[in-house]
Amino acid sequence: MQMLMPEPQIFVERTLALIKPDVIDKEEEIEDCILRSGFLILQKRKLQLSPEQCSNFYADQYGKVFFPNLTAYMSSGPLVAMVLARHCAVSYWKELLGPSNSIRAKRTHPHSLRAIYGTDDLRNALHGSLSISTAEKEIQFMFPEVILEPIPAGQRARDYLNLYVKPTLLAGLTALCKEKPADPMTWLADWLIEHNPNKPRLQHHITEEEHQ
């Protein structure tokens, strides 16, 4: 029977994580938990937001009773912003955080980060994006210099792999079989770097003196 190869997919997703002002002293401890949970930290910065910036960040909460206290809390000291990446990053980070109300989290999800580090409904220690689209907006807010390119998926991902990855990889594997090096992985890595068709090249400009 002919074995069916699984369709190529790209399992990368990004989300925003915030370590809030009241638990900034637990930064290393929380980051260690993040990394052990399979996330990559792509970007990280420590900053302090003004009340106006907090109002803009939480604009969707404007008009709610707790809004003034929320902006005062979030601007009360420095915080740490991180861009996290992994398969299904948004949902996995929300699961690791637990319920937004830390008191409830302590009852229902005692091992979640908000249960461990949070205090109450307002001071819940950490923030996570609610959706992929929200994550993109929040990452852009906290890291305005970062360019977020759309992540290819489905047919777009397959087209990208077929056009830009497979031809070079196949040529490299063919050369590897002919060469039969003692350390095939290192040899292939070096070959791919050397033969990368997309690496920048310097164009040689002919000067007027050279032309003469």
CATH architecture of the largest domain: 2-Layer Sandwich
Q: Strand count, sense and closure of the main sheet?
A: 4 strands, antiparallel
Q: Strand order of the main beta sheet, please? A: 2-3-1-4
Count of extended strands: 4
CATH fold description of the largest domain: Alpha-Beta Plaits
Distance between the terminal alpha carbons, to the nearest Å? 68 Å
Reading off the top of the CATH hierarchy, the class of the largest domain is best stated as Alpha Beta
- Taken in chain order, the helices and strands follow as EHEHHEHHHEHHHH
Shape: elongated
> Would you tell me the overall average pLDDT?
85
- Number of DSSP helical runs: 10
* Model regions low in confidence, pLDDT < 50 over at least 5 residues: 7-11, 202-212
**Radius of gyration from CA coordinates:** 24 Å
Q: For this structure, what is the CATH homologous superfamily of the largest domain?
A: Nucleoside diphosphate kinase-like domain
- The structural domain count equals 2
β-sheet strand percentage: 5-15%
Share in helix: 40-55%
Structural category is: alpha+beta
Keywords: Cell projection, Cilium, Cytoplasm, Cytoskeleton, Developmental protein, Differentiation, Flagellum, Hydrolase, Kinase, Spermatogenesis, Transferase
InterPro entries: Dpy-30_motif (IPR007858), NDK-like_dom (IPR034907), NDK-like_dom_sf (IPR036850), NDK_H5 (IPR012410), Nucleoside_diP_kinase (IPR001564)
Pfam families: Dpy-30, NDK
Protein name: Nucleoside diphosphate kinase homolog 5
